[in-house]
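User: Can you fold this complex?
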Amino acid sequence: MPHINIKKGHDLQISGLPDKTIQQQIKSETVAILPTDFRGIKPKLIVKEGDNVKIGSPLFFNKVNPDIKWGSPACGTVKTIEYGPRRVIQKIEIQLSDSQESEKNKKYKNSEIIGLAREVVIDTILGANIFPFFRQRPFNTIPDPKVIPRDIFVSAINTAPLSFDQEVVIKENLESFQAGVDALNTLTSGKVYLTSKTGSVVSSIHNVETYTIDGPHPAGNVGIQIHHISHLKPGENVWTINSQDVITIGKLFLRGIYDPTRVITLAGPCIREPGHFRINAGAKISTITNGRMINDEKRIISGDVLTGRVTSPEDFISFYDYSISVISDEVKREFIGMLNPGSSRSRYSLTPVFLSLSKLLYPFNTSQNGSHRAVVPINAWERVLPMDILPNELYRSILAKDIDEMEMLGLLECDDEDFALCSFACPSKTDVSGVIREGLDILQAEG
Amino acid sequence: MNWLLKYLLKIKPNFEKDGKLEWLYPIYEATETILFSTDERTKTAPHIRDSIDIKRVMILVVITLIPCYVFGALNVGYQNAQALGIARGWTENLLFGFKIILPIIIVTFVTGAFWEILFSIVRKHDISEGFLVTCALIPLTMPPSIPLWQLAIATSFGIVIGKEIFGGVGMNIFNPALTARCFIFFSYPSRISGDQVWLVGPDGYSGATALSVPASTKGSDAVSLLDGIAQFDYSWYNLASGWIPGSIGETNKFIILGAAIVLMGMKLISWRVILGGVSGLFAMSYIGMLLAPYSDNSMLSIPPHYHLVMGSFAFGLTFMATEPVTGSHTDAGRLFYGFFVGVLTVIIRSINPAYPEGVMLAILLMNAFASLIDYFVIKINVNNRMKRYAQ
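Assistant: Here's the predicted assembly.
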């Protein structure tokens, strides 16, 4: 089994690590899909307020590509549809009914799936309205189902701070995971790559190219893995999918239904008894965090602390997010803080000042720890970016909007989530990942 | 200290938009954030940030310079006592030195702060901490006998031409502290060219620096020439430990080595520049030694380990060449950049007849070429990628 060793990067020593056992399902009275979670789509409604829907019933489709529809994550009635400026759909909220029914699809036997034709598999997934689980690189958007991807990448290792433990989740769904992987195999002309840590439960999965991977965050990011296993060339595209969604696809083929439950982590310095929880996709934040937060000024994040989205108890968890992180939003002002190089604040700094060897966990808060300044290139970005990319030069080419230069410097292989640590580590407090996204948007708009 | 913070926040509205003293906002902002760490919060992902910021980077560099100041003061006092031919205790030497150095530091910081504040008010940006390092470096590169008015002009030139006209810290192409020194070097050469020793002594007292000893004598071996000097102890060990006349902060190489290790450990400076610089110096001086038998230039016969401790090479390499903004920005580039700083230092020292010391000019020259080196590194990176794409 090939092995990849990632050296550059950094594992955040953030406190509030989740407990490994999965708690019982949290019931949410309403769930929602937020069309704003999906980059580059034009949503067009299929349902209206008051309609009854089952699990998997289509709610809206993409005007750009009408084959792609979004299935309801619950059975009940459409409670509200919220519009933003220029009547962009912000939210479709569903009130759950007492009994949960699903749209029925054809079932397959374990052994059948690998032999299915690509059209059958694509049509099943599109028909079940769960195709948006797939995302493509470059650009990290929902792919065109008609385009055959070069390869499909699945990461069975999470290195992001406070993310869910893949081993625990995959272990209890090994059969569905295998079925999902078999289905993926029919979709690509190339290979399905699966990455895991050494000695993982997924080593028993077949019909995949398994790579073991070792190293600090962002080693678990699929973008980094693509770069090291088989990098992206201009004109190519590969698909990626989260391991839990592979399980969902597996269940679709084995049981004929879309199972919207997923395991997330609720963790962070401001969470009492952080752990893994089973929830309904699109659940309301307050139903998850209820009674589990330590009461003070705090920020709730849908996703991890490096890439997530600010949210509130009244909001809903994002489509692609598998964790809710809660950190303190209370920033204390230290007297002559800058003359305090060895204080506990800097202990976790990437610049190893004096005491960095300590492995104690640190309750990070939302402090920016400094003001924005011009970039001083002391290699803070390079040390946390395990890619053959010159981040400084790439950053400047994006600021200059030089499209040729961006492409030559390898922007197509990058995604903003892989640069989140650069923003974290930057002493000038530069939003590196934001600029990378800006560059990708420019490239995509150019076609 | 809560009362102070409360007071600062109370007077803040005066300095904000439409306040009476709006134009003084940069000064208010600097005072507030120097006294109290900022309470700015992240707005988007990543929601947490590392505790390092530019203020901390700069202040850490300034802290590592403090030992150079202390030794500098001690040495100024010691050299003065030697020149006068009197015996003086350590404390007295130190006090004497501080009396000489303190006005130099004050003049530099006042001039530097004046320009930095003026530019932040006019251009409406925050006061950048970078001037602290620049102003902390300038006195260390000056002879203790420097007239204060020359110092003020040089500091102004360094800060304004070396930095502010490019837009401030992060945008300058030449090291501002070296630009200041370079200004004095060419404007008042009799004071600073490096032929004559600089020390605070009796009128008319003079002597040759270690570098000008072999430079002024033809056709002999540099080390034996240095050993033959009675006025100062120019043995290798003494050159390294810094009890020689020179600029204020550069004489003790052990202190500089310590500072370099601390800065490299904190990853604030690149070890690649240091490694490249020392190898460049060794390589070029070794070539010089090979050529020495065919020339009457005694400078060529200076062995590599002497080059390392003579003049300001160690200081310049540690604190000036490693400056991240004006040096190369790529890792491979930094090795070459450092290497050529070392090579050029030896070339200017040995082969150039005008100046016995070459570190300053070597670094400034390489500042100019740093982006050219980066250009080739980027080209190689791009070419490799294109080759991979073509496969």
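The mean pLDDT of chain A is 89. Chain A has four domains: 3-14+105-255, 30-96, 261-328, 373-447.
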